[in-house]
Amino acid sequence: MIADKPEVTVESALIFEKSVPGRRGVLPPKAPEVDLEALLGAENLRPEPPRLPEVDELTLVRHYTNLSRRQIGIDVTFYPLGSCTMKYNPKVHEAAVQLFADLHPYQDPSTAQGALRLMYELQRDLGEITGMDAVTLQPAAGAHGELTGIMVIRAYHASRGEAEQRRVVLVPDSAHGSNPATASMAGYQVKEIPSGPDGEVNLEALQAELGPHVAAIMLTNPNTLGLFERRILEIAKAAHAVGAQLYYDGANLNAVMGMARPGDMGFDVVHLNLHKTFTVPHGGGGPGSGPVGVKAHLAPFLPVPQVVRRGEGYALEYDRPHSIGQVKSFFGNFGALVRSYAYIKMLGAEGIRKSAELAVLNANYLKELLKSEGFRIPYDRTCMHEFVAQPPEGVRTLDVAKGLLEMGYHPPTVYFPLIVKEALMIEPTETESKEALEAFARAMGEVVRKDKEWLEGAPYTTPVRRLDEVQANRRPKLRWGE
Ligand SMILES: *Cc1c(COP(=O)(O)O)cnc(C)c1O
């Protein structure tokens, strides 16, 4: 049974097709008489009302409940997506977010002191965890934090009259794609640094590229192979010796938080992914948050407004002449900030450290279990919070991923980092139990022992079978009725 065509086995996922003219779920209050033409201009009004689905409430509830049941998420199953830290988001965080449900971003700051205090304390706590002197909470995701951080670095070099001279950003060949994309979007030339045979940055190759033309080095530590960069202090020293700034991609902070701080390793700028390390749910494209922390010499360039302490209270400070400006409407994704604040306050310093220890322990335990199921480990030493594996000889990573879907699991990250062939990048996180890890390892073993035909046909019982991923990317159908 080999699926050569995608086969959609479920009823329509389109609410439009359930629409019956005149049917309704709610009757909204009658709109006040407003002269829309005068307010918006006639040319901005639709000639006809929009075509919206008309359904009763029960149809609507069933529609979305059934859609949600076709989804794999962390609340449904183990989700070991490497580099994404798919940890459980405790439900009490949602209750905390509800406390702020009536707040509006246009409210006068004097009436939103609790929210500002939360942001102020979160800035301080994230600064403490990363070893940075100042933090902005504005960026909406990790990649957005990267862009913000690199713009801050550019503004710093410009303030010293070195913007023209420093044209290059160095990025290791194991880096997440967003690193070179960020540097190039910020107008820099990207120069790739090869990894050594131990999976770490090759220090000699790095030193050969360093010079007064380099603006920054972007690194993540532990790196995307799940290995700690043991020569990080030497790298920092070499970068600073030529006036370059060291940028920390904080996506892997879960391995070290509470134990080691990027600021102490010599990094000048850090972004965090609150939707990875600090539990904010993600994976469906929902709002994330990518705060950026910097050392004192870069603080004047951070975006405005900055949340500051003023007298007894808290205020939004806009008067910062060297700032790169505002990078997001309002003050960042506030709901994400509340969840992360609740997480940090509930765990405390001890709990944060313990989370990182357990994340590392879980990853190492799973790595050993998978070895006994026949998986190969290309860089086999004690890993941090994740590791990269390869299936047994002759089995394709793509087929392992599709087979896992059939077993009810979300697959690991596949074919990344690019420097490992047939890579499976596995990050269990600290929130999984020993039993969950063992069950997953058994499922992985079962998948790779299936025959070729089964593997190439999987998955069989999911709402959608194997898709043509190239066409899905190149020619996505985004319009209803096409
Ligand atoms: C996830 C990730 C990013 C990008 O973060 P987003 O929040 O997805 O924009 C950058 N670097 C690494 C290593 C990551 O894992």
TrEMBL record:
The reaction(s) catalysed by this protein are: N(6)-[(R)-lipoyl]-L-lysyl-[glycine-cleavage complex H protein] + glycine + H(+) = N(6)-[(R)-S(8)-aminomethyldihydrolipoyl]-L-lysyl-[glycine-cleavage complex H protein] + CO2
Q: Which residues carry this modification: N6-(pyridoxal phosphate)lysine?
A: 276
Please list every transmembrane segment annotated in the UniProt record, as residue ranges.
none
One GO term in the molecular function aspect is: glycine binding
Q: Does the keyword Oxidoreductase apply?
A: yes
Q: Which SUPFAM superfamilies match?
A: PLP-dependent transferases
Q: What is its EC number?
A: 1.4.4.2
What range(s) does the Glycine cleavage system P-protein N-terminal domain occupy?
A: 100-300
CDD domains assigned to the protein according to its UniProt record, in alphabetical order: GDC-P
Where the record annotates domain Glycine dehydrogenase C-terminal, the positions are: 356-450
Instruction: Identify which cofactors the protein needs according to its UniProt entry.
Output: pyridoxal 5'-phosphate
Alphabetically list the UniProt keywords.
Answer: Oxidoreductase, Pyridoxal phosphate
Is Oxidoreductase included in the keywords of this UniProt record?
yes
Which biological process terms from the Gene Ontology are attached to this UniProt entry?
A: glycine decarboxylation via glycine cleavage system
Top-level EC class: oxidoreductase
Where is it found, in Gene Ontology cellular component terms? Answer: cytosol; glycine cleavage complex
Q: How does it assemble?
A: The glycine cleavage system is composed of four proteins: P, T, L and H. In this organism, the P 'protein' is a heterodimer of two subunits.
Per the entry, what this protein does is:
The glycine cleavage system catalyzes the degradation of glycine. The P protein binds the alpha-amino group of glycine through its pyridoxal phosphate cofactor; CO(2) is released and the remaining methylamine moiety is then transferred to the lipoamide cofactor of the H protein.
Family to which this protein belongs:
Belongs to the GcvP family. C-terminal subunit subfamily.
Q: Which PANTHER family match?
A: GLYCINE DEHYDROGENASE (DECARBOXYLATING), MITOCHONDRIAL, GLYCINE DEHYDROGENASE, DECARBOXYLATING
The protein's name: Probable glycine dehydrogenase (decarboxylating) subunit 2
List the source organism. Answer: Calidithermus terrae
User: Gene name on record?
Assistant: gcvPB
